[in-house]
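Wed. Picked up where I left off yesterday with Phosphoglycerate mutase-like protein. The coffee machine is broken again, so keeping this brief.
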Amino acid sequence: MQLLLALPVLSLVTGTEAAETILGAYIFHRHGDRTPKSLPPAKLTSLGYDQVYSAGQYYRSRYLTGPSKIRGIDPDVVKLSQLSVTSPVDNVLQNSAMGFLQGLYPPVGETMAKQPLRNGSDVQAPMNGYQLIPVNIVSSGTGSEDNGWLQDATGCQNAKLSSNGYFSSAEYNRLLSGTKDFYGRLVPVVNGTFDESDVTFKNAYVVYDLINVAEIHNTTIPSSDVLTNSTLFQTRTLADAHEWGLAYNASSNMRAISGMQLAGEILKYINSTIVSGTAKSSANKLGIQFGAYASFLSFFGLADLPKASPDFMGVPDYASSMVLELFTNVDVPSGSFPSMNDLQVRFLFHNGTASNSSEPVAYPLFGGRNDALSWNDFSSELSKFAVRTTEDWCHKCGNTTGTCAPYAPANNSPPANSNSSSGGPHMSASIGGVIGAFVTLAFILGTLAAVMLLGGLRLVTKKALAGRSTSTSEISMQKA
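Structure written out below (tokens, as returned):
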């Protein structure tokens, strides 16, 4: 059987034209090395911390201090209006974001971190001028690294239904039955964590994840003789196939909801870079988001990146990053901004920790051949699947409770002051209620009159009955 290849480390260097000016960038980054998902809570390891810190140093050299520096960005002292950093509520992802930022904007030192006070004294910032940069929260991906199944972090009903469809597909069932013996040989390696019945292709990723973490960190592994290079490679490629099937399907793309949300966030941020640039505002230069591999895979599928390389169908390594660069090749005088027609966008990706010796590579988006697209074409293509509002997300996901309650479909009763399908006028609810009350009263009085007539009854006031003890009601009925 033919299996997907794991992503190789990409090491080609993307050149930059002499006249090129980088105007802004959006980085989507995976967390660093962590403990396994199957033993929650997952934690960022020291190796993972080092990976994201090193990646932050690389992107500092690329966008803050090097030849590809983003125009107008402050290289040393962070200006928070120029930077947006986001992450889901997840310990591994948030800690990865903070580690990355320490490499991107390191401490400014004793001189720059000193602040004079009115009384003539100076205050030295702690930790050699450590820079405090907030990491804001995005709604998607909460608890990603403690969830074994990637859709558990989306909260999207239709995405879960779509992904569940993979488990009834011919491809899944072929791999499930065809790899039974293979996973049976892995049972002695992982039976301290998994029951034997769970060691199948159905749990391909979490089985691979446990073994992968052990291969990196453990000095001893049970039945380690089973884990030959060939076996390790197959656990990885089976995990790739499993997660790709859950993250993207061209005929049922709702399972790619995390990629749709990421596309919306990219569009929103790059558009804010353009708006602030045309307004001659020094803001929104660099957007950074940390997220899980599911968002990578979903975005790769939606953007047709497997046409550029089949490696995009594999789970990215720890500390991988993809970047959308906004740039122009026209001369831009100081204080001005290019016209919309002169703006271009380029997609770059690096599998694993990016460095000056192994930089991100540019790839064509949307099944095209060019590494760069005009902003107009890029935004048009991305808008075809981007989810940019809560309302849009709720409608696509079919969610109707919680934050989606305001966008839930109304009940079938016609609203007040509305017209019927035949076009005839309807009265308001309040007027209808008053008329209904009068109709009811008329019916009661008519019934009363009929009873009196047929039964020979008459109305007698309480005053007329003075001295008689027949009734104490204000109006009583008596025989004539």
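Quick read: The chain has two domains: 1-107+126-409, 429-479.
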